[in-house]
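Weekly structure sync, notes
Attendees: PL (lead), two postdocs, one rotation student
Agenda item 3: pending single-chain targets
PL asked that the sequence for the first pending target be pasted directly into the notes so everyone works from the same version. It is reproduced below exactly as submitted, 197 residues in total.
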Amino acid sequence: MTSAILTRDTLVLNKAWIAIATTPVRHALSLIFTGTAEAIEPDSFQTHAFETWVELEVPDGEPFVSTVNMQIRAPEVIVLRSYSGVPQQVLPFTRRNLVRRDGSTCQYCGRQPGHAELSIDHVIPRSRGGPTSWENCVLACVQCNRRKGSKLVADAGMRLVRRPAAPQWSPIFEVAGTHQRDAWRRFISDKHWKHSG
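Predicted structure, written out during the meeting:
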């Protein structure tokens, strides 16, 4: 049981209490032990150094790490004591991020044929100087991409479901659905949860 708990995710906040990452409980406890971080009680927002954290009683049903002579609560959230930086905020233009932005949906016909049947289409074709960017690329099914070819949308007699734009979500921090903790919602905006777009 303890080994499984040690690999669970702990939310990491920077000095300004901005969520910047997750780290395994094992590493979170190490950061607390060395004084690099403090554990946070999510309900009260009270912070604890290692000495006071290990003295806390483990509530029923909460995960803990067993040592030879004590049980230590597995920290759900820690705050770094000195780091105040924030990861890069520019969302990279990748196929994966484009699929997420467009919801795996062809932006011409609205169908969702599956990832293998979706391609990236340049609204203004590259042959006409169209850039590879959030504002000029959309997902298109093979059929629509073939129909549009190297024409402009209007010239092909087609319409876009919606105008392409950079996503509104941020890469600063997002939580995959399988790793979400209710306690983290006090520290992370809903827009950073992976199921939202």
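Discussion points:
- Helices lie at 2-6, 25-33, 50-53, 95-101, 142-148.
- The beta strands are 9-13, 19-24, 37-41, 46-48, 64-66, 71-73, 77-80, 118-122, 137-141.
Action: rotation student to compare against the earlier draft before next sync.
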